[in-house]
Protein 1
Amino acid sequence: MLDRPQHTPVDPSLDPFALAKALSGFHFIDGGYVPGRNGATFAVVNPATGIEVARAAEGDAADVDAAVQSAAKAQKAWAKVPARKRGAMVHACAALLKDHVEELSRLIALETGKALRTESRVEAGVVADVFEFFGGLGSELKGESVPFAPNVLSVTVREPLGVVGAIIPWNVPMLLMALKVAPALVAGNAVVVKSAEEAPLAVLRICELMNRVLPPGVFNMVSGYGPECGAPLVEHPLVRKVTFTGSVETGKIVARAAANKLIPVTLELGGKSPMIVFADCDFDKTVSGALTSMRFTRQGQSCTAASRIYVERPIFDRFVTAMKTAVDAMVMGDPLDEKTDIGTIVSQDQLAKVRGFIEEGTATAGATAHVCSAMPSDPALKKGLFIQPVIFTGLGPDSRLVREEIFGPVTVMAPFDDAEAVLAEANDSEYGLAASLWTNNLKVGLDLAHRLEAGLVQINQNLVVQANLSYGGVKSSGLGKEASLEAMLEHFTHKKTIMVNMG
Ligand code: NAI
Ligand code: MG
């Protein structure tokens, strides 16, 4: 048994630097902040300045075990709480998170370098929305009655799986966590989240806030590195389901470990999402759609980023020029500054990876790198992980930039001449997460939408994941769906059949 809570709540704060310091060194286990058992910590760095703003607990198997034990114990009582009441509690969490949107926005901007106005505040708002949505679904955990024989009552019931292990990445950590935690909790599971090394703070704060409403142990969080802290979570015998968002490579490791225990796993992995623009599109709307589709305000760090843009040849040159002009007008700068459109890359490693792609593209014969916007001039930001967005033209379909996920502000554009050819090119990818089509000919658009190999296809828009709409990829982009009622039922419950012979 843990002594709990070991640490008092952290005061609300709109000063993200103070809040980051206050959150330093803790996991959140069994209803309270607890320091890591081995005392080790790692640096959380502000990517806009390179300065350390906090230390995160560097968890290992012992911390994971404490969190899972707490969750396993709490889950038994949680599963007995009427489903609608569980939902009401998750709904109450949403209300609490709404009161903290500004605080969470500043904290996530500080640790990830995502601009406050264009990205961080949006994410924090959507997080509250996701908890609100799932909070209303408690009474949807229904079973069926099955015709079997007149004297036999045959019904199915939905039961929780037990302890869910959730492993999350750093790009939209609060939202990607919410998509796992909200349905898992409403369905009667307890959760242990392993946060991403690059962004452990805002999610920790959310965990604490929600623990003011939820019973202790139902929602725990550990921070640490993947192999030392993530792997023991997947491997823990009491963890009965794993849900993961991140890279394909790590997703396969997680899936193999889950297979060893024969537990179900949901994987949300990468993407190389095509955007297909026909000459009859609404030109200006589509140019601005390309900017949002490519998630330039998130430095392209999105699994659904439109990182391959195919434009029908008659408007290709004009489209490239218009896009370049529009991205040029975006302001790069301090993520916490309201004027900033584009912040920083999350880490040195990611910056090096993105630069590698840009160098390779620039060195390719026949390719042109259209470098956009301008580096910030503020000397305080000179060590910041800024990178100018790049639009590439003239790269062939076999280029690594066309085939691999870059996860940076880099998109490749190519002209096309007919719908069948562009469809084949769009589908010629290991990935199948999202796609968008831009045309006023809905007959063509719908036909292609049916034939694109992707989990989400949008025509004349390219929104991020939305509560209530199933979200998840095909091919190497993942297994299973998130964000919807079906996702909660299929991925966080199992169906039990009960038969009563009334003789
Ligand atoms: P990653 O997949 O290695 O990390 C994601 C999460 O998995 C982190 O919490 C990490 O600690 C954990 N993890 C790592 N190794 C693990 C293991 N052996 N067992 C259990 N958990 C483990 O992704 P990373 O290294 O942050 O980024 C690399 C690339 O992955 C990016 O450049 C991008 O292409 C892709 N990516 C895709 C994301 C998406 O939304 N689908 C999100 C983040 C990254
Ligand atoms: Mg990794």
Note: Residues 61-80 form the longest helix (20 residues).
Protein 2
Amino acid sequence: MSTHESPGAARPGHALLIRDLMLRVRTWAPGRTIQYRDRVTLTYREWLGRTARLGAWLGRLGVRPGDRVGVLDWDSHRVLEMFFAVPCVGATLHTVNVKLTPEQVGYTIRHARDTVLFVHADFLPLLAGIRGFLGMVRHVVVLADGPWEAPDGLPVAGEYEEGLGSVEPLASWPDLEEDTTATLFYTTGTTGDPKGVSFTHRQIVLHTLAATMTLAIYEEPMSLRASDVYMPLTPMFHVHAWGVPYIAVAVGLTQVYPGRYEPAVLLALMERHRVTFTHCVPTLLLMLLRHPASGTVDWSRLKVVIGGAALLPAVAREARERGICIVGGYGMSETCPIVAVSNLQPGLVGPGGRVEDEVDVITRTGFPLPLVQARVVDEEGREVPAGGEGVGELVLRCPWLTSGYVDDPAASERLWKDGWLHTGDGARIDADGYIRITDRIKDVIKIGGEWISSLEIEGVLARHPAVAEAAVIGAPDAKWDEHPRAEVVLRPGVAAPTPRELVRHLHAAVEDGVLHKRALLTEVVLVESIPRTSVGKVDKKRMRAALKSGG
Ligand code: AMP
């Protein structure tokens, strides 16, 4: 039957392809720029030409549809080229998390069966140390910002710029099936090896459209605009820098890629290039705001989406006092990632609104994006009604959630139990539809049969003027099963409170009804720093392990 006769069949152009996010900018904003540190400035016209050369060169390197191509780089224009060129020739881009241990990096490259690796010269020694994992790798291409030397024993095919210069740009990109896998990266859970999470063209296109719509249509508390200058502060290896580079190219934003995250360089780039839009975990924002050079930045032009961890009121207030427009977002590796953003619902705040303070809304976790179905269920899978005090696990459905972990059917089945993606996050849904994450389910502290949120105790401690950071885990307790143990970093230059004084501070929150009274069992320990994961979040797994081993 011809396509003409079959009403259900897809017509040319019906497939949702990353290619079609990319090409519009060719005529919309060909002269706008993509900046890499202070080293490279490309117009979109030039960038598109380079991306088409990369497409051609991938063919020369023997990359075929279905192959996996790995990249180990800091955030750069080159990775942005790969975000598009690799999937658009039908291969899968594996963004390797360079912050994992060398063995884990090796594990992910071997598990992904990468055949070609693009590697920044900084990571060549790392790669040389994990040669044993690289059996499938046919070519290593070096990404260099200066002189480099090839270590022995790696199949180095040459340098990126030379390679791009050696081919003619691809004349056109192929038509693909929209369910072709476009990207792959690994997430480290609480146990076991890293798990591979992948997304198709269709999923990335739909995520791009829905996230753009959500970030750009609502004005409160902020809105992404076509005139914004974008710089990522979430690494490109972590869920495609939350997918925002795909948005930025699709709508033709001026972009800045900062390379390796060095606070002084980030601040200088933000000021020099007048960055207006970014996204990051809360810790990174605090680190920049409290950096000695932070006074050189005009923060009042900046809009920031905070995600990856709860946006605490204390952090939101500190950012707003500096003039930043801030909003919260929620998602995880498995969700592409954005599924909720804490925009202000009409009439919720302001004269006659039910909430006094904007901060109370933007620090709720978020309102689901269009096409996202969110529910909270109890341990038996029964829905916990919205608007009550009941907490359960947040489960999700929407078209851009990963269909499962690569080559791990058992974990995929657990993820998708009962046809909903299980986030592992404890949550409640407000009567007006906002999701509130109460805690990672495994981070909830079980005190004498009561479940207490570690995030709530952290939130109260963070409000104390002497506290720079606080992280709370459950510590074994002979009487109560567990009690909360708070590791607290104090701000430099302020009068240091004793642990007892910090517990008294919790007392006030209990009296105000903000905290459960069992939170008063908190043991407060003053520490120099709090362990972080490879993407900058508090590493509670390491905190628990250190406590267990008496560290
Ligand atoms: P990852 O897969 O590394 O991106 O981590 C995802 C996890 O980060 C989620 O499952 C949550 O536990 C946590 N997370 C992300 N966004 C938020 C948020 N807005 N509030 C609280 N926790 C969050």
Note: DSSP finds 18 helices and 25 strands in the chain.
